[in-house]
Design brief:
Layout: H1 2-18, H2 25-37, H3 41-50, H4 56-69, H5 72-84, H6 91-104, H7 107-120, H8 126-138, H9 142-151, H10 157-169, H11 173-186, H12 192-196
Length: about 200
């Protein structure tokens, strides 16, 4: 189980340190991930802090660890630190944090994420745009969802379903029906989620 995995990870980590092994970035990332998955964020953060060279995976692993352990504010602080240090975030970073913003109904943080994603070019990633549409919709800002939706060059079934569901959830049945008609006209194939929305 988790406790056995945690003990094994600590044993291997301590053995490597005593033996004088230098743990490279990839090895440190694995340790962060194992510690985080076992719920030991102190050990995960210690490994993270001790790293001479951090990459996007390092940041994502520790941020995700804090999200999974429920320390959402620490995850947000780490992302802000990541941006201050001008570390490169990827679509996975943004997907984790947009989901976090949605859970917290934190529109200000979400808008900041959208701004950063736009500046970095990640905004054009369909999964990031879909997550932003969902975030705005769940925060009651269907107008912002539609703005992103209307600005997208390409849409998948998830995009269509997210917008339709948002309209229906917020009681805007006319727009939901209009988007459903647009979906059919575009050639996109509705799935079960479309009909449930």
């Amino acid at each position: 189980g988790q406790l056995r995995d945690l003990r094994l990870a600590k044993y291997v980590h301590e053995y490597m340190a005593r033996a004088g092994f230098v743990v490279e970035t990839t090895g440190s990332n694995i340790l962060i991930d194992v510690y985080a998955k076992c719920g030991d964020m102190i050990a995960a953060r210690d490994v993270f802090k001790s790293m001479g060279c951090k990459d996007t995976v390092s940041w994502n692993s520790v941020i995700n660890g804090y999200i999974q352990s429920g320390d959402l504010l620490e995850a947000m602080k780490l992302f802000k630190m990541m941006m201050i240090m001008e570390e490169k975030a990827d679509h996975i970073t943004y997907l984790m944090l947009i989901s976090l913003s949605t859970r917290l109904s934190d529109l200000e943080f979400g808008r900041g994420l959208q701004s950063n994603a736009t500046k970095s070019g990640i905004y054009s990633d369909m999964s990031v745009s879909n997550a932003l549409i969902d975030m705005y919709a769940k925060c009651g800002e269907v107008g912002d969802s539609l703005k992103i939706f209307n600005g997208m060059n390409a849409r998948d079934t998830v995009t269509w379903n997210t917008v339709i569901s948002a309209c229906v959830r917020l009681g805007d049945f006319a727009t939901g029906l209009h988007v459903t008609t647009q979906m059919r006209s575009s050639g996109a194939v509705p799935d079960m989620a479309t009909f449930i929305a």
